[in-house]
Write a structure and sequence with these properties.
Layout lengths: L1 E3 L3 E2 L1 H9 L10 E2 L2 E3 L23
Length: 59
């Protein structure tokens, strides 16, 4: 499974914004992290789970 993070500002872009300068043109303003993972197969155990009304009785 491949996971993509939402694009975020690079630290150099944040520093430029904080100091009132224009970010460097030779660097992308944002980065997008990536990760790889194996699929996890999980079947929950339903023992001890009770289903009840979550609304108050006076509604």
């Amino acid at each position: 499974m491949r996971v993509l993070e939402n694009p975020t500002c690079r630290w150099s872009s944040w520093d430029a914004i904080k100091s009132g300068e224009i970010p460097r043109a030779d660097l992308p303003a944002t980065i997008q992290e990536r990760a790889w993972s194996s699929t996890i197969w999980y079947i929950p155990d339903n023992e001890g789970i009770t289903i009840g009304n979550i609304l108050p009785d006076d509604i």
